[in-house]
């Protein structure tokens, strides 16, 4: 089957990719700038074609708990929201992580804190990468930088979620959600008929009952479970790091950026190289697990790194931990829904080269 | 030597009048003496057994005293966050419409933190059964005031009695959901006497049948007691419940279209 | 070839849809495209703008500060974006409602009376297609026949009977655009 070329908004691409990935259910609640996902799915009415359930919940809290219920039945289920809504979902997300359920959560980030702005931002990095809700847990975090990746990471997200029985977050932002680009869509997959052995689908006489829970009152058992999670996260760190390098081989200076910022930095690299500065870009595709090993290697070759983010400086902490003092690391960021421009980044880089 | 040989003569299938329901597990219930939970668990287990639903059932357990319901019923279960059971059940039933899905929730879970999930699931007419155990108190956390605590009733967070001026009035969730077009069958029962146990079992069985027919949300409230946190003996607690809870939460059907059409009251 | 364009005007003027038609048409010629709208609560009457990039190369940043071409449809947008046109770049504007005209001497400025012309053609909705026609006259990066194909792609089927009218509007735009000053 051939892939199909379309021009779509990032949000629409997520929705269409969900149908094509054979998702069983989507549960959402409107919030700018991601409402097109729910709108598109309601308009597409996949119940008639693939049998996918699409439901507008009464709140983000209800939506994520619907995801919990569906995931507990072994179904491919997902939700999407934007920053304030993702905060509301954190309760459900930690229960999902604590019950080791697979699901996909899309965050089309907008600026905060609080109600903040509806314009794009990357200020939810800590929340996505360090846990978000209570308790020791991690999400697998994918950072798309194009409409194409908004579509591709739906499939990848479900694959990783089921491989590790772990919630996956696609950390996008308002710019990628709203922009239109070419996207090659995968052919329609059939919805899976296989039932994972842990799923609650009704207990047949042939097996013990399945229980989905995150409750364990015995501290010894709870610690064993926590240890099991740690081992899982280590396996994920070992096997699932993804990143993209852009003109890094001869770079003297390295920009580190994900998502929209990475797109901007690609242009910055072009501009700076036009002025004779050997600049490279490392774009983390997975934010958890973070490409620490590769950054540590590059720290041997470059003389400085700049973490470019639409935040007050969040990913820069992971860059600092990765290079462990080998090179100076700076943060350049814009906030409040302002997107840095390529020339701004170049100007900041030059100021650090001269200043450093 | 005592005459023990006679017992073997007595234990014969034809003499068997009572046995453990197969859908109940061997786990020892953790409930306090006199508590209604065990009875409602057993009723559920019997119905699942008698209707042959074990392989079709997914139960959603709450946060509250009955959090470990999944230890006692030999069925597939999901443990919900506090108040969120109807959201889980919504997705489960929509994704697997042929299954039998129920939630089992207490008054704090259903009528305080989960008010929104309860009302919206009922309003959408989600086709599952909600079992609501109302004993007017937070049991598991040690006897705090619940949304259903009666006016003047003492609890650890209303030590001088519930003052409705400052603490609000008891919430009659069952009456509220009965007004919603999405609910099909709404009833209020109790399990403090054998007759009431039979009525509750009848009500839950009816709800099971309605779910098979895709009729919409069925809501069965069971007005119950909490001897430990009410600080009474089981007998006193049941008497107090009859005298105080029942006038405020009267037993009977609040909504049953089929009963109206057949009995023409 | 890379052409970086900002289209700016009132919400409801068809600014965003004009950008959409451009990218749909450009894809017909196997070009790379991106369409990055300003988004917000303004639906009608507020300001709206969209950054459109059309290129033979993979597009890096969809968000820009400097543009090859600015297509300006109201005074607020002229005030905001006149300074964002690259040296030697192009500014196209509709004079309708403009009280302060473009002042830069290092860019080429064109005007198009599209609002007036749409009025004459008895269809205010084709205003943006007249502007698009004017743009394509100055920057013929997309062939008219591909714009027609782009319209077929981007318009819902129920509007397809309006495609000939849109084509007429494009042609009219090509005729009425005029040079104001050159860099």
Question: Would you kindly provide a written description of the structure presented here, covering whatever features stand out?
Answer:
The complex is a heterotrimer of chains A (356), B (265) and C (183). Chain A has helices at residues 10-20, 35-44, 60-72, 83-98, 125-129, 147-164, 174-178, 219-239, 259-274, 292-298, 315-323, 342-355; strands spanning 4-9, 25-28, 53-56, 77-81, 103-109, 140-142, 167-173, 180-185, 211-212, 243-246, 253-256, 279-284, 286-288, 304-309, 329-333. By secondary structure, chain A is an alpha/beta fold. Chain A starts with a strand and ends with a helix. The mean pLDDT of chain B is 94. The radius of gyration of chain B is 19 Å and the shape is globular. A 7-stranded mixed β-sheet of chain B has the order 2-1-3-4-8-7-9, sandwiched between helices. Chain B has a two-stranded antiparallel ribbon with strand order 5-6. In chain B, strand 5 and strand 6 form a beta hairpin. In chain B, helix 2 (37-50) packs across helix 9 (194-212) and helix 5 packs across helix 6 (115-124). Chain B is of the alpha/beta class. In chain C, helix 2 (75-81) links the parallel strand 4 (67-72) and strand 5 (85-93). Chain C has a 7-stranded mixed β-sheet with strand order 2-3-1-4-5-6-7, sandwiched between helices. The longest helix of chain C has 14 residues, at 15-28. Chain C has 6 helices and 7 strands; from the N terminus they run E-H-E-E-E-H-E-E-H-H-H-H-E. With 183 residues, chain C is of the alpha/beta class. The mean pLDDT of chain C is 92. The chains are: A alpha/beta (356), B alpha/beta (265), C alpha/beta (183). The interface between A and B is medium-sized, with 38 and 31 residues.
